[in-house]
Design brief:
This protein has 423 residues and is of the alpha+beta class. Helix content is 30%, strand content 27%. It folds into 4 domains: 92 residues, Rossmann fold (3-Layer(aba) Sandwich), CATH 3.40.50; 56 residues, no CATH class; 128 residues, D-amino Acid Aminotransferase, Chain A, domain 1 (2-Layer Sandwich); 94 residues, Alpha-Beta Complex (Glycinamide Ribonucleotide Synthetase, Chain A, domain 4). It is built from 14 helices and 22 strands. The strands form 6 sheets. It has a 5-stranded parallel sheet with strand order 3-2-1-4-5, sandwiched between helices. It has a 5-stranded antiparallel sheet with strand order 12-15-18-22-19. Helix 1 packs parallel to helix 10 and helix 7 runs antiparallel to helix 8. The structure holds adenosine monophosphate and glycine (GLY). The site of glycine has 7 residues, from loops.
């Protein structure tokens, strides 16, 4: 079968690598892809936003499955466009993707289905938001309801900071239409975990747990990023907590989406805070997490293409998931300055040396090919990922690989997976 994978990040490099291992795969196309994905298929220069061209390309090239990586095209209904053309597509419909694209909708459906989450209210008017935040004397979290690449969330220790955040969003329009509605919610305390599951509308297949590291600085300090590293499994997700997440969160959301007339299929990602009172949903995402996908797929032994097809066909109960029991750790190497401004075009050296190390994969994200070299082309540049016999060893292996890679201004966190080790 020919497959068209849409996206160009580290997540897509990892998905391309895994799909290429499938016996069912004939040709893999990645649109637009990056220099890393080009090792596993043919990069095709079509924007993820150009649905018509993507569908046209898929038709011309006998594509049997389209796999959509990022949230924006999903929210814009790309899956519906492929399906209307008779092509299977992995991911939720545009309507179901609102679970991520509209946090107000997400909160409503969580409340309607009694899913544990932070208490919240939605506002479309700054004066109302301000009055509500001012009436509170505890920390608040202010979020834009629309898509904002992980940057639309403000955790404010003081209500006065919450008002400033709401003003920035609602008066200064810092997030455009994505900030038309603002959610104000209680701040939750605890460790975070990412729970990813395949959902075929009916069946739920939970993947191994993982934990992301969103802030830029060691010890979870500084601005939030798209994610600076991840490891799998996350020991904080005990069997008891996983069962609770399935029973209290995943099953009710899948049922609730069906009752809402927006059945869910594809990859469902629950961002969880494990509080003293038990797990709470921070948010749902409608696609694989980046960088969680990198360590999770390194541990997946089963055929990803087969699992994706079974998800599309509503027959997940017919496939099995097998995992490498060894943990995996991914460290993101970013451009100096990210998540603020940064320079591009820096030559990256050591990719080959690091990639040849045992149980190491260097997944590319913000890279470009130029004059026979690989150069930086984005904020998050690489996701260096390694397995090890235990989490300490995986951490040692990944940082040994990171050591081999260099580019001007390269930055990474030095403490990825410390939480799993209890450091
Ligand atoms: P979200 O995009 O909603 O997952 O939020 C991004 C990040 O902001 C999360 O990973 C948390 O670190 C933080 N966050 C979001 N909501 C809350 C909350 N209610 N309490 C504490 N932290 C939160
Ligand atoms: N790693 C967080 C996300 O993919 O949204």
């Amino acid at each position: 079968m020919n497959v068209l994978l849409i996206g160009n990040g580290g997540r897509e490099h990892a998905i391309a690598w895994k799909l290429a291992q499938s016996k069912k795969l004939d040709k893999l196309f990645i649109s637009p892809g990056n220099p890393g994905t080009a090792d596993y298929g043919k990069n095709v220069d079509i924007s993820v936003d150009d649905g018509e061209k993507l569908v046209e390309f898929a038709k011309m090239n006998n594509v049997g499955l389209a796999v959509i990586g990022p949230e924006d095209p999903l929210a814009n209904g790309l899956v519906d466009k492929f399906e209307a053309a008779g092509i299977k597509a992995f991911g939720p419909s545009g309507a179901a993707a609102q679970l991520e694209a509209d946090k107000a909708f997400s909160k409503v459906i969580m409340k309607a289905n009694s899913i544990p989450t932070a208490e919240s209210r939605a506002f479309t008017n700054f004066a109302d938001a301000k009055a509500y935040i001012a009436s509170r004397d505890e920390a608040v979290v202010v979020k834009v309801a629309g898509l904002a690449k992980g940057k639309g969330v403000f955790v404010c220790e003081r209500p006065s900071d919450g008002i400033l955040a709401a003003e920035k969003i609602m008066v200064d329009n810092a997030f455009g239409d994505a900030g038309k509605t603002v959610i104000v919610e209680d701040k939750l305390l605890g460790q975070e975990a990412s729970i990813l599951a395949m959902v075929d509308g009916r069946n739920i297949y939970v993947l191994e747990s993982s934990q992301d590291h969103k802030p830029i600085g060691d010890g979870d300090t500084g601005d939030n990023t798209g994610g600076m590293g991840a490891y799998s499994p996350a020991p904080v997700v005990t069997e008891k907590i996983m069962n609770q997440i399935i029973k209290e969160m995943l099953v009710p959301i899948v049922d609730g989406m069906n009752r809402n007339g927006t059945p869910y299929k594809g990859l469902l990602y629950a961002g969880i805070m494990i509080t003293q009172g038990g797990p709470r949903v921070l948010e749902f995402n409608v696609r694989f997490g980046d960088p969680e996908t990198q360590p999770i797929l390194m541990r997946l032994k089963s055929d990803l293409l087969e699992i994706m097809l079974a998800t599309c066909d509503g027959r997940l109960d017919e496939v099995e998931l097998h995992w490498d029991t060894r943990p995996a750790v991914c460290v993101v190497m970013s451009s100096g300055g990210y998540p603020g401004e940064y320079e591009k075009g820096k030559v990256i050296s050591g990719l080959k040396e690091a990639g040849q190390m045992k149980d190491v994969m260097v997944f590319q994200a913000g890279t470009a090919a130029k004059d026979g070299e690989i150069v930086t082309a984005g904020g998050r540049v690489l996701g260096v990922t390694a397995m090890g016999s235990n989490i300490e060893q995986a951490q040692k292996n990944v940082y040994a690989a990171v050591e081999k890679i260099s580019f001007d201004g390269a930055y990474c966190r030095k403490d990825i997976a410390n939480k799993a080790i209890g450091k």
